[in-house]
């Protein structure tokens, strides 16, 4: 209610004195009611004075969002007050007159868009955007906001990320969580906890841009002649997985550099460029793709489970609890995103661990022989057991909540600064 009052004052305060007088309030009501009436008539396609389920579906479809009849019914029920399963003008006006969701695009937003949550492993499946949003530049502003949120989030949780990588590689030597943290600080001081963070932040922007462009092209190939239609969940999974694989293929050398820089000893490299030169001189170009196969294979379970769990949880909440609103709310979406990302990581973590060990082994950090993906898997299971496939997962889980929180707060502020509607 407090947020609603702030919103009404902000849009109605024409003289910008921070207060809402009676004249400004009545002017807001007249203007907004006029906009609502025009919107109502544009949705009422058969001009019978009522909006039904089919008309809601049609209006959402025109915005690039396909919803089932059941989902459209839920949206209608959140506005329908007399139980007729249609919306008349008075119901429409009463629902939206004091509601920040003041057009169908806002309602569509909650059904269509996921939140940009960066927990160090970016969401594999890009967001869905309408043709209008692409033409207006909303897409790129949203990508910039997401990149900034990811940069701040990853920097804030970098010590936990470095601890995760350290335990993935050296955890079999009996190094504990606190022992690993203490050892890193003793070896290089507090600043060493941020080793590898620079390139981890640097790769966010190119990966996001490549993934989005590849996703749009793959989506066009899947969709074919159905211009303007949204993809089904399984089609989004396929397109997202292929787009993620494309982005990873192009930026993968940066992943190898990130692992080497994260694990480096004090004075081992003078910087990113020196690290790249030493790898190239001592190991050749192939070293920049060590661990590429398990990394690419890990995209499939991560993307599939992340997307499926997110969509299932969000839609289940909307179906069961959102009888009074089409908006599931920020906390629900944050919860769905956190749970889905965590489930995706659980499924793909063994492949991520094998990838990291292959990347690290290439530099002979521990003098171990270089093993293939299958060789790594057999070695870990035979020497450390199945739990060995999940070494370092504790700090990975510890960083989820702070990473999600930081990412969301920065993302929302960046969207406002860049003029992207929240």
UniProtKB/TrEMBL annotation:
Parts of the chain that traverse the membrane: none
Keyword terms of this UniProt record: Calcium, Membrane, Metal-binding, Mitochondrion, Mitochondrion inner membrane, Repeat, Transmembrane, Transmembrane helix, Transport
Record has Transport as a keyword: yes
Family matches, as SMART domains: EFh
Localization per record: Mitochondrion inner membrane
Pfam family, one: EF-hand_8
GO biological process: transmembrane transport
Domain EF-hand positions: 31-66, 67-102
Entry membrane topology: Multi-pass membrane protein
One GO term describing the cellular component: mitochondrial inner membrane
Solcar repeat positions: 137-221, 231-316, 328-417
Highest taxon, organism lineage: Eukaryota
Name the UniProt record assigns to this protein: Calcium-binding mitochondrial carrier protein SCaMC-3-like
Organism phylogeny: Eukaryota, Metazoa, Chordata, Craniata, Vertebrata
């Amino acid at each position: 209610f407090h947020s609603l009052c702030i919103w009404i004052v902000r849009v109605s305060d024409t003289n910008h004195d921070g207060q809402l007088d009676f004249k400004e309030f009545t002017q807001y009501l007249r203007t907004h009611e006029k906009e609502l009436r025009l919107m109502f008539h544009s949705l009422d396609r058969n001009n019978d004075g009522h909006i039904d389920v089919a008309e809601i579906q049609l209006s959402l479809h025109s915005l690039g969002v396909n919803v089932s009849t059941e989902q459209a019914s839920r949206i209608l029920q959140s506005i329908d007050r007399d139980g007729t399963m249609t919306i008349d003008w008075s119901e429409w006006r009463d629902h939206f007159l004091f509601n920040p969701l003041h057009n169908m695009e806002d309602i569509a937003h909650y059904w269509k868009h996921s939140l940009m949550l960066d927990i160090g492993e970016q969401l594999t499946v890009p967001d869905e955007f309408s043709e209008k949003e692409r033409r207006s530049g909303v897409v790129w502003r949203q990508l910039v906001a997401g990149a900034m949120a990811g940069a701040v989030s990853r920097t804030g949780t970098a010590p936990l990320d470095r601890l995760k990588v350290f335990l993935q590689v050296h955890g079999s030597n009996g190094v504990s969580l606190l022992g690993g943290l203490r050892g890193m600080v003793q070896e290089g001081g507090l600043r060493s906890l941020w080793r590898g963070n620079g390139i981890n932040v640097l790769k966010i922007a190119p990966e996001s841009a490549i993934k989005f462009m590849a996703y749009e092209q793959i989506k066009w190939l899947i969709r074919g002649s159905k211009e303007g239609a949204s993809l089904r969940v399984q089609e989004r999974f396929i397109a997202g997985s292929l787009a993620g694989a494309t982005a990873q293929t192009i930026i993968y050398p940066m992943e190898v550099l990130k692992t080497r820089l994260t694990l480096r000893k004090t004075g081992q490299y003078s910087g990113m460029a020196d690290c790249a030169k030493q790898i190239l001189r001592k190991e050749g170009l192939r070293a920049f793709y060590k661990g590429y196969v398990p990394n690419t294979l890990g995209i499939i379970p991560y993307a599939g489970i992340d997307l499926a769990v997110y969509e299932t949880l969000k839609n289940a909440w909307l179906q069961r609890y959102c009888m009074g609103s089409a908006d599931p709310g920020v906390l629900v979406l944050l919860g769905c995103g956190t749970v889905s990302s965590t489930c995706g990581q659980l499924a793909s973590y063994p492949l991520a661990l094998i990838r990291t060990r292959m990347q690290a082994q290439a530099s002979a950090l521990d003098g171990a022989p270089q093993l293939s993906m299958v060789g790594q898997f057999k070695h870990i299971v035979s020497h450390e057991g199945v739990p060995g496939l999940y070494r370092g997962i504790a700090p990975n889980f510890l960083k989820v909540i702070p990473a999600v929180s930081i990412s969301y707060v920065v993302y929302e502020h960046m969207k406002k600064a860049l003029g992207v509607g929240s």
